[in-house]
């Protein structure tokens, strides 16, 4: 792709400029570059998951789009459903991946014989020209299992695409008529992560044209007013009559280059900033008078040893894991209370137990992730300030307080937790323990009462019998999560601080060596460093 080539060329310019780095800085730079090169390779495509409830017609729509009837299994059981990534290939086959390892390959005609498990990913290679055209633009379509199925590893697979996907398409059956139930739950969760999928209304042959128009308008209203998507994309498709206009329109306005450019641009700017800070520190140290440079160097070395041994985490400004966990749980409880009327209505409507549990889990999951992100940012800032105060003994040497870079993105920290999020001992089990015995009682309250009375009474039961026990039951898990997350932040800050102090060491050594050089030689070296800064700034402007 042009974007990949662009970033490789920019990286080559940075590599040339970074030749002025020395010592540990050069080693750390090489590590960052290697990781970024891998990221460039992994950014060859953006993946666009097509999601929706089971039977919304996702596989049928994709079979029509690929112009290969029967390509993907239709009407599969939820227990065997997996994600199918669609690639162009002259040799048609399907590869099955489990935990990033290829475990089976079959001819495409035997796709239904794959030994799939929920959470697996199947890479489908086919001779479809529409798929080829998308792939050449850098787009890979993904046929996802149905949302809201209650299948444990299915939800983990969906979360994986929330974590790594860049664009989503939600398919809504025209018979459904709006975003509701598990569909609205899923969309609401995506909106919490600042992801706003396109919406395509399927099976429009089953409704009059005026009804379809009304459905489009109402879903647009839901997306704007309930989910905060100010520029929603809503259109229609129908696999039966080969009406793919809405899907093609979405692809026409999707720009993979922009999405990939945003992601790679942030990472490359971080590398450039690292190089810039290294050079600036060396220039500053070599341009000022520093008394007792050898003594300062010894202080730095001692401080590095202290930081490596233990960070000063005991401070009134730094939350303990217990305090952080309580804050997260308070937010979880508040989110559940805010949605308690919806939960009560689902119970009154006798929606399936899995749908109710899935709705609650979605609320809890999104709140844990967003709350933990906020807690991480607060903890990182407070700990950074505490660490800064602890090194005031070397105050004549400036050390930036920006220790954590972009560590505020804690999706990776949460991902391992999500793997166990839905098993019998996790949140699913907690919900089942407190909610399921309560459901059969609802039928006894329905007779002789108004709808409002029933809703209020069921809500009160949800609050007392469900929400409070759930938050109490979650405490050990959330405490472990906040504890582990704080340790990761401490490690990150520790690594960043040591790196910055090593950078100061290099500058001090150069300052001491300058005493043995002529003024002309020192000036020439400083001029080279300043020229390198100017070049870096120009390179950054080209991103």
Question: Could you name the key traits of this structure?
Answer:
Rossmann fold, 543 residues, 9% strand, nine-stranded mixed sheet, 17 helices, 2 domains, alpha/beta
Explain the layout of strands and helices.
Blueprint: H1 2-17, H2 23-42, E1 46-51, H3 58-66, E2 83-88, E3 93-98, E4 101-107, E5 121-126, H4 129-136, E6 139-143, H5 152-164, E7 169-173, H6 181-192, E8 198-202, H7 209-225, E9 234-236, H8 245-253, H9 256-287, H10 293-309, H11 321-338, H12 340-348, H13 353-390, H14 411-419, H15 427-435, H16 451-514, H17 519-541
Parallel strand pairs: 1-6, 1-7, 2-5, 7-8, 8-9
Antiparallel strand pairs: 2-6, 3-4, 3-5
Helix pairs in contact: 1-2, 1-9, 1-17, 2-9, 2-16, 5-14, 6-13, 9-16, 9-17, 10-16, 11-13, 11-16, 12-16, 13-15, 13-16, 15-16
Explain this structure:
It is built from 17 helices and nine strands. It has a nine-stranded mixed beta sheet with strand order 4-3-5-2-6-1-7-8-9, sandwiched between helices. About 3% of the residues have low confidence. Helix 9 packs parallel to helix 16 and helix 13 crosses helix 15. The radius of gyration is 28 Å and the shape is globular. The chain is an alpha/beta fold and 543 residues long. It folds into two domains: 324 residues, no CATH class; 209 residues, P-loop containing nucleotide triphosphate hydrolases (Rossmann fold).
């Amino acid at each position: 792709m042009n974007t990949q080539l662009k970033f490789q060329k920019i990286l080559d310019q940075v590599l040339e400029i970074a030749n002025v780095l020395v010592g540990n800085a050069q080693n750390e730079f090489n590590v960052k570059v290697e990781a970024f090169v891998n990221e460039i390779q992994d950014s060859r495509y953006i993946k666009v998951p097509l999601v929706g409830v089971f039977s919304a017609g996702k596989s049928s729509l994709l079979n029509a789009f690929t112009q290969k009837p029967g390509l993907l299994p239709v009407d599969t059981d939820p227990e065997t459903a997996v994600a199918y990534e669609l690639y162009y290939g002259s040799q048609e086959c399907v590869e099955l991946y489990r935990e990033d390892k290829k475990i089976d390959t079959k001819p495409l005609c035997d796709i239904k014989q794959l030994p799939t498990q929920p959470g697996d990913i199947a890479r489908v290679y086919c001779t479809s020209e529409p798929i080829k055209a998308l792939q050449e633009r850098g787009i890979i379509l993904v046929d996802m299992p149905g949302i809201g199925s209650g299948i444990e590893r299915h939800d983990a697979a969906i979360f994986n695409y929330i974590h790594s996907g860049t664009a989503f398409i939600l398919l809504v059956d025209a018979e459904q008529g709006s975003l509701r139930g598990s569909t609205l739950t899923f969309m609401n969760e995506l909106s919490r992560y600042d992801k706003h999928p396109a919406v395509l209304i399927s099976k429009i042959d089953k409704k009059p044209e005026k009804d379809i128009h009304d459905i489009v308008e109402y879903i647009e209203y839901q997306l704007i007013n309930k989910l905060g998507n100010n520029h929603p994309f809503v259109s229609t498709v129908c696999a039966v009559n080969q009406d793919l206009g809405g899907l093609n329109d979405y692809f026409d306005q999707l720009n993979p280059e922009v999405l990939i450019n945003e992601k790679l641009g942030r990472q490359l700017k971080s590398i450039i900033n690292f190089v810039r800070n290294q050079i600036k520190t060396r220039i500053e140290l070599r341009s000022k008078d520093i008394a007792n440079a050898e003594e300062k160097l010894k202080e730095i070395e001692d401080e590095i040893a202290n930081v490596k041994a233990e960070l000063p985490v005991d401070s009134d400004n730094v939350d303990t894991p217990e305090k952080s966990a309580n804050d997260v749980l308070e937010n979880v409880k508040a989110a559940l209370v805010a949605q308690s009327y919806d939960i009560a209505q689902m119970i009154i409507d006798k929606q399936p137990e899995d749908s109710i549990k899935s709705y609650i889990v979605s609320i809890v999951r999104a709140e844990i992730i967003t709350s933990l992100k906020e807690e991480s940012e607060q903890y990182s800032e407070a700990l950074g300030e505490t660490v800064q105060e602890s090194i005031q003994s070397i105050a004549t040497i400036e050390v930036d307080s920006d220790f954590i870079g972009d560590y505020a993105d804690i999706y990776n920290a949460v991902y391992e937790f999500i793997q166990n999020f839905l098993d019998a001992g996790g949140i699913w089990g907690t919900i089942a323990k407190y909610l399921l015995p309560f459901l059969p009682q609802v039928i006894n309250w329905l007779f002789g009462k108004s709808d409002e009375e029933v809703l209020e009474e069921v809500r009160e039961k949800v609050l007392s019998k469900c929400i409070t026990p759930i938050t109490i039951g979650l405490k050990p898990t959330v405490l472990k999560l906040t504890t582990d997350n704080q340790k990761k932040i401490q490690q990150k800050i520790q690594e960043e601080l040591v790196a910055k102090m090593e950078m100061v060491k290099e500058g001090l050594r150069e300052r001491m060596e300058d005493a043995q050089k002529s003024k002309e030689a020192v000036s020439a070296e400083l001029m080279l460093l300043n020229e390198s800064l100017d070049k870096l700034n120009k390179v950054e402007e080209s991103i």
